[in-house]
Design goal:
This protein is 28% helix and 23% strand. The strands form five sheets. Strands 9, 12, 15, 16, 17, 18 and 19 form a seven-stranded mixed β-sheet that branches. Strands 1-8-6-3 form a four-stranded antiparallel β-sheet, with no helix packed on it. A hairpin with a 2-residue loop joins strand 18 and strand 19.
């Protein structure tokens, strides 16, 4: 018997441990070389582990296990061939095994073409579970018919578009609940426990580290968004026609931040030991919410990109993040972060630093408010902005000046276009 050991591969410089989130092939199944056998969840991404040889799969680790790089995951018995795992044909049956023609044969069931067929990925399973959708009702488009995250999102969208049928007059009245049911439902004492995902644990650890290891402080300001709104309204159609993508608020803020960061290098630096590391470029990490947690992939060299290039890159990263397809390389780096809680309705917040970076800008919801302009009370679309920064490297005067510079550039976007 020839056994091939399958171990956790090296998935990135900063990744020391992964979680076995799901087996894609059952124990004892015949697998082909390079066929995905399980899924790992690392700190930053989800990845599949291919079989290193063809043969019978023997599980060693269990779903939910935390495994170090190099740990044994499974074994493959290469002496077993595909036909060895199949059921014997009629010509292979002995006399004692042959079915009795006088006896009624038991009904047989046809095995599915693939174990993955109709089986959702972890991200897809979570989406379907939250939307109360049976995976059996979803057609999988992934490998071997597996239900991907995109399939789950489409199923949820279709469910929302499908109108709820009106109850017919023939529908029987619901049976009145008993007294005990009425009491138990609103006063439930049930508790549930669920293991935190690796990404959630990593996020938790980094947020606590940022609070404990930095001298974090937050300063606030407000921005009149009228100029940007009018700019987008006036040129949006021409912008889309020329570049094939809409001009959003994020690219304008990213470009404003890049300009201010190049002018104030302390905000674009970080502390490493007893040294300060300065960057002569601006890589802005964009906070993206996904079903498994918040990710912050960077858009690189924002100071040199056009608005359309920034919009395209943000869209590309967001699509990959929500589909769980970001690579380790796409998640690494960043010299500054922008997070936009306004898309969820947040009016004001104090964002937490994305270590080792020294500052993060928080955007918020745009609300019409009365403000005083030239001695007159007028109604303007206003946004609160927050800058959290590491006071060890960034002085209060620098942080306030930086945020005022952002306000100045966004309120008069012509300065961005003229680079003044």
């Amino acid at each position: 018997m020839s056994i091939v050991e399958v171990r956790v591969p090296n998935v990135g410089e900063s990744v020391a441990e992964v979680t076995l989130s799901q087996w894609l092939k059952p124990n004892g199944a015949f697998v082909k070389q390079d066929e995905p056998i399980c899924e790992f969840e690392s700190d930053k991404a989800t990845l599949e582990l291919p079989a290193e040889a063809s043969g019978k799969l023997i599980h060693v680790a269990q779903e939910g296990d935390d495994l170090e790089i190099g740990a044994l995951v499974a074994k493959i018995d290469t002496s077993v061939q595909a036909e060895d795992t199949s059921s014997p044909g009629p010509e292979q049956l002995t006399t004692s095994e042959a079915p009795n023609p006088t006896t009624e044969s038991a009904p047989t069931t046809t095995a599915p073409s693939s174990y993955a067929s109709g089986h959702p990925s972890p991200a897809a399973a979570k989406i379907l579970r939250e939307a109360n959708i049976d995976p059996k009702e979803v057609q999988g488009s992934g490998k071997d018919g597996r239900i991907t995250k995109e399939d789950a999102l489409k199923a949820v969208a279709n469910q929302k578009q499908t109108p709820t049928p009106e109850p017919s007059s023939s529908t029987p009245e619901p049976t009145p609940s008993t007294a005990s049911d009425t009491v138990q439902q609103p006063f439930s004492r049930n508790e549930r426990r669920k293991k935190m995902s690796r990404m959630r644990r990593t996020i938790a650890a980094r947020l606590v580290s940022a609070k404990n290891q930095t001298a974090m402080l937050t300063t606030f300001n407000e921005i009149d968004m009228r100029g940007v709104i009018e700019l987008r309204k006036k040129y949006q159609e021409q912008f889309v026609k020329k570049y094939g993508i809409k001009l959003g608020f994020m690219s304008i803020f990213a470009k404003a931040c890049a300009k201010a960061l190049m002018e104030m290098p302390d905000v674009n630096a970080f502390i490493e030991g007893n040294e300060i590391v300065y960057h002569d470029y601006v890589d802005i990490s964009i906070a993206i919410a996904t079903p498994t947690g918040l990710v912050v992939p960077p858009v690189r060299n924002v100071e040199s990109l056009h608005f359309a290039d920034i919009e395209r890159k943000i869209k590309e990263l967001a699509d990959k993040a929500r589909a769980g397809k970001l690579t380790i390389e796409e998640m690494q780096g960043g010299t500054f972060t922008i997070t936009n809680g306004g898309v969820f309705g947040s009016l004001m917040s104090t964002p937490i630093l994305n270590e080792p970076q020294s500052a993060i800008l928080g955007m918020h919801a745009i609300k019409e408010r009365p403000v005083v302009v030239d001695g007159q009370i007028v109604v303007r679309p206003m946004m609160y902005v927050a800058l959290s920064y590491d006071h060890r490297i960034i002085d209060g005067a620098t942080s306030v000046t930086f945020l005022v510079r952002i306000k100045e550039l966004v309120e008069d976007p012509t300065k961005l276009l003229l680079d003044i």
